[in-house]
Amino acid sequence: MNIASVWLSGCTGCHMSFLDLDERLMELPRLARIVFTPFADMKSFPQDVDITLVEGAVATSTDLELLRTVRASTRQLIAFGDCAVTGNITAMRNTFGRDQVLAAAYGTEGKHFGQDASHHLPSLLEQVLPIHRLVDVDFYLPGCPVSHELIWYVLTEMIEGRRPVLDRKKLRYG
Ligand code: SF4
User: Is 0.85 topped by the overall pTM?
Assistant: First the structure.
């Protein structure tokens, strides 16, 4: 069983919650092989991944490219946290136009940022989107951030080949 995680545009808080698994992080490698994660220095997303947690919304050209790569190589894709599920905080910029956001952040130079390869920045998409608007999602894992108890429950159920059930009690995990 190969598992992976990626982050797109979010605050990384859902991955910080993953780290809150503490001693269970030592147990996880006994259940599954972690083949890709932002916590390790891995350059390219591997093929043949069983489960991938995707944190964050799709806000840039780089997010979109990575998400498509992940989807093509993953059997079960989890929308990991509210930014991935709904767009959440990342999508607040949709209230404004992309150029307005760039100008507010970078002043008069802003309109060039990210749209020109010489800046080595990914270009901002016109709209921030939750991941299900772009690829198929197999499981939605809500929370901002997702609680570590819920992460553990969902991951271990899926590793065992069961579909997790998110009832009210589990969604109150803190
Ligand atoms: S869902 Fe919340 S904690 Fe997770 S990446 Fe988005 S803003 Fe951060």
Answer: yes
